[in-house]
Amino acid sequence: MGKTMTMVRTLPLIAVSLALAGCVSLSPKVPPQLLRLTPSAPAPANNGVVLGKGVAVAVSFPSAPVELSNNRVPVRIGSTEVAYVKDAQWIDSPAHLFRDLLAETITVRTGRPTLTPREAALTTGPRLGGRISEFGIDAGGHQASVVYDATLIRSGDQVETRRFTANAPVNGKVDEASAGAAINTAANDVATQVADWVGR
C-alpha cells in the first residue's frame, strides 16, 4: 500500500517535468555568426605612456532605450513599430560595443589615452557620457541609423552636450551581414565626429 501511494504521488510530478522540458529552453539559441563593431582606424601598439594630469579621457557606457537593451538588431518600421533582423545578434550589448569604439577612435584621432568607467577616478581630464537613441536599421530609408546624444565635461562643472547622427546605406536585402556592415559604417562615422569634438 505504501509503495502504491508513493507511485501515485510521484507520477504527476514526472509528467509535469517532462512537459516543461519540452517547451522551456534554459539557454537562447545562438546564431552561427555574431556581429561586432570594428574601428575604421585601430590604435597601433605602443611602448606605454605616462599619463599627465588631465590628459586621459574617461569614456562611460552610454545609456540606451529598451529596444537596444538586448543583443539583437532593431528595424524601425514607420514611427511606432519595431522588428528585429532575423538571426542577427551582436556579440555584446550595443552600448558596450559603441563605448569601446568611441574610446578607440578618440585615442587614434586625438592622441589621448582613454579610460574605462572603472578607471575614471584615476583622471581629472575630460569625461564623456551620453545616450544612444538609435542603433539599427531604418526600413523606410533602407539604411542604418546611429544617433548619439553626448555629454562632455571638459573641466570643472562646465558641461557640453551635442547630438551626433550618421546614416549608411544597406547593400542588398536586410540580413545579418548587410545590417551589421551598415551599422558599423554609421557607428564609425559618429565615433569620428565625437572624437574630433572631444579633441578640440
Characterize the structure shown.
It holds the Pfam family ABC_trans_aux. Residues 41-195 form the ABC-type transport auxiliary lipoprotein component domain. InterPro entries: ABC_trans_aux. Keywords: Lipoprotein. This is ABC-type transport auxiliary lipoprotein family protein. The protein is of the alpha/beta class. It has a single domain, classed as 3-Layer(aba) Sandwich (Rossmann fold), CATH 3.40.50. 31% of the residues lie in helices and 27% in strands. It contains 3 helices and 7 strands; from the N terminus they run αβββαββββα. Strands 1, 2, 3, 4, 5, 6 and 7 form a 7-stranded mixed sheet that branches. Helix 2 (94-110) packs across helix 3. The longest helix is centred in the last third of the chain and has 23 residues, at 176-198. It is elongated. Residues 1-27 have low confidence and may be disordered.
Topology:
Blueprint: H1 2-23, E1 57-59, E2 72-77, E3 81-89, H2 94-110, E4 114-115, E5 127-138, E6 143-153, E7 159-169, H3 176-198
Parallel strand pairs: 1-4, 1-5, 2-5
Antiparallel strand pairs: 2-3, 5-6, 6-7
Helix pairs in contact: 2-3
Main structural class: alpha/beta
Shape: elongated
Strand content: 25-35%
Q: Oligomeric state of the chains?
A: single chain
Number of helices: 3
The gyration radius over C-alpha positions equals 23 Å
What number is the mean pLDDT? 83
How many β-strands, per DSSP? 7
The name of the CATH architecture is: 3-Layer(aba) Sandwich
State the name of the first-level CATH class.
Answer: Alpha Beta
Within CATH, the superfamily carries the name ABC-type transport auxiliary lipoprotein component
Question: What count of structural domains?
Answer: 1
CATH topology: Rossmann fold
Report low-confidence residues grouped into runs of 5 or more: 1-27
The level of helicity is: 25-40%
Order of helices and strands: HEEEHEEEEH
| N/C terminus separation | 86 Å
Largest sheet: 7 strands, mixed
